[in-house]
Design goal:
Radius of gyration: 19 Å
CATH class: Mainly Beta
CATH architecture: Distorted Sandwich
Largest sheet: 9 strands, antiparallel
Number of domains: 1
Helix content: under 10%
Strand order of the largest sheet: 10-11-12-13-28-22-21-16-19
Number of strands: 28
Low-confidence stretches: none
Shape: globular
Strand content: 35-45%
Distance between the termini: 39 Å
Number of helices: 2
CATH topology: Beta-galactosidase, Chain A, domain 5
Structural class: mainly beta
Length: about 325
């Protein structure tokens, strides 16, 4: 059964204890008409029984890829499950997207809690995690992640909703206008593992510092787009740590809906839904290629094996703390 957060504007967020899944976000367009803007299924049973590409789920222990499913801490190598070809993806075969979280609803906020056992999916240490969802009356959905560990372990938590601001069943998102407030990104190899360096976006189809539609350059022959089959890259948010800062803004011009993403994280993965294959979702809607997009706040992929990247190892006695905000609004016609 989903837990419902609702504010005075009529905006609602539905969250499942299974996987901490954001099952739906219903917001108004510029005319005051409401629509669900998150791809997914009608029932919890469908999430549990059908394979799906992490629709709306909490991701952990480690969001994104770890090369070869291996990393070392203090000279000790740890081996993880390789569930994405030769690599480890989004926490493994039974990551946080598949576990059942303890849930406590309090007004317009929901706390989820989970204890990941030492050795779960190959990760060292018992990890105690809480995730707080809070919907305020400005139509901002805040997600606060907290974790502690008994042994040194990599941690990189995120959320994986697929958005379509025209409505979850509205088809391809090519016309959405995207801004990403980043000057650089981490290029990847053929397995989508970072090469270990940072490159500028200037002069490439990965430059969203000026608003561009998602479809405007997605079939460009740039080697990075060819490798990923579209966009599936980590942008480097080169801003001071601390309070959540603006990382991205998306505008859907027909409905007038706007979504801003704020985060304390150093990276943002923009995924353009390249691998969506037409599976049937809510109300029988067919989710074809690029019918939804993801903006996953994160530390960088493969950081445990990339010493030049921001560190992701959580030590005993330290607190992992991360915040992401999805803020919704509308613009007038012609804006």
């Amino acid at each position: 059964m989903s837990h419902i957060l609702q504010n005075v504007n009529g905006t609602t967020v539905s969250i499942l204890p299974l996987g901490g899944i954001i099952q739906g976000i219903v917001t108004a367009d510029r005319s005051g008409d409401f629509a669900d803007i998150v791809l997914g299924f009608d029932t919890e049973a469908e999430y549990e029984s059908r394979g799906h590409p992490y629709f709306g789920a909490l991701i952990g222990r480690y969001g994104n890829r770890i090369a070869g499913g291996r990393f070392a801490i203090d000279g000790i190598e740890y081996v993880l499950g390789c569930n994405a070809g030769p690599n480890h993806l989004h926490g493994g075969f039974r990551g946080f997207d598949k576990v059942r979280w303890r849930a406590k609803l309090q007004g317009q906020s929901l706390r989820l809690a989970y204890v990941s056992a030492d050795g779960e999916e190959g990760y060292p240490g018992e990890l105690t995690v809480t995730v707080d969802y809070a919907l305020d009356d400005t139509d901002a959905l805040r997600i606060d992640y907290r974790a502690t560990t008994t042994r040194s372990t990599p941690v990189n938590l995120t959320s994986h909703p697929y958005f379509n601001l025209a409505g979850h069943d509205a088809g391809a998102v090519y016309g959405h206008r995207l801004e990403i407030f980043a000057d650089s990104y981490t290029p990847v190899d053929e397995e989508l593992i970072p090469l270990g360096n940072v490159e500028g976006v200037q002069g490439t189809p990965l430059d969203f510092r000026t608003p561009m539609t998602i479809g405007e350059r997605i079939i460009d022959d740039h080697p990075q787009l060819l490798r990923a089959g579209g966009y599936d890259h980590n942008w480097v948010l080169d801003r001071p740590a601390g309070e959540p800062r603006l990382a991205a803004r998306v505008t859907e011009p027909v409905s007038g809906r706007v979504m801003e993403v704020l985060t304390t994280e150093p990276g943002l993965q923009f995924y353009s839904g390249n691998s969506l294959d037409g599976m049937r979702g809510k109300g029988g809607a067919a989710y074809g290629p690029r019918s939804g997009f993801c903006l996953e706040t994160q530390h960088f992929p493969d950081s445990p094996n990339q010493p030049a990247f921001p560190a992701t190892i959580l030590e005993p006695g330290d607190l992992y703390a991360s915040t992401t905000i999805y803020r919704f609004s509308t613009i007038a016609a012609g804006s």
